[in-house]
Amino acid sequence: MSLNLDDVLFVATLVQKKAAIQIDASKQYLVESRLHALALELGLKSEAELVLKLRRNGDATLKERVVDAMTTNETLFFRDVHPYETLRTTIVPELVKARASAPINIWSAACSTGQEPYSLALLLSEHFPALGRGGVRITATDISNRVLDQARAGRYTQAEVNRGLPAPLLVKHFKQDKGHWQLGEHVRQLVDFRNVNLVEAWPFATQFDLVLVRYVMVYFDHATRVALLERIRRSMRPGAYLLLGGAELLDPDVQGFERLTLGRSVVFRRT
Ligand SMILES: C[S@@+](CC[C@H](N)C(=O)[O-])C[C@H]1O[C@@H](n2cnc3c(N)ncnc32)[C@H](O)[C@@H]1O
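Above are the sequence and the S-adenosylmethionine SMILES. Below is the predicted complex in structure-token form.
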């Protein structure tokens, strides 16, 4: 059974309040299809019944499941290729030099099912193997427990590994297991996955050397983006790098970063 406009607005308001994700009324189909799948999973007859339950008891776990269902988790290995080239040729060598014996701290914020932090971990394992012995910490976070469960498991379908993962890396670091590809522990142990809502308090006080916040701010409004980038800036060491998604730029209101073109990538450095 489809939702009425009031139901759609109720869900949109909840998702905006909890995760800052903007859903306008024209996305009725998206809300219906995502909540339909969740309703069936929860043993309910329809998305309308799910919204009714949500309105009636406002249970925190149910709200979390609804917000989770409304996140868009599109991702792939080595997304856009060029940023990873720039990391390999320029940024990581510079960080290795600058950090001397201190570990390099990396944050993959909004990591979805793990392809982004694991691409980093694979790149480091391949090209900077000495960092594997305590020289790097990758913190990977997302608001969705559903995607974090898959990320922690490091288990991918054939279709997922076909997207962006070079065959030699697949053969070297993954094992086939019951129709899936299982990433080896030697790579998985470089990444620490945690549930973090970017618009709430963060449970870490780390000063990062590199932050990737890619393809998530498109879901937020201008004020949220500016406030988030200011908090991210404060979580970075002076000279640390920030990587955004392909077409994403810093709003002119965001201060404290210089824009650099390194090879074929545009990156931002905390001043
Ligand atoms: C499109 S994916 C991007 C994944 C990856 N960064 C990439 O570029 O391939 C966006 C992710 O942002 C997460 N997300 C959305 N709102 C969030 C919030 N308020 N806090 C943390 N993560 C959020 C979603 O759960 C989703 O997994």
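The two ends are 53 Å apart (CA to CA).
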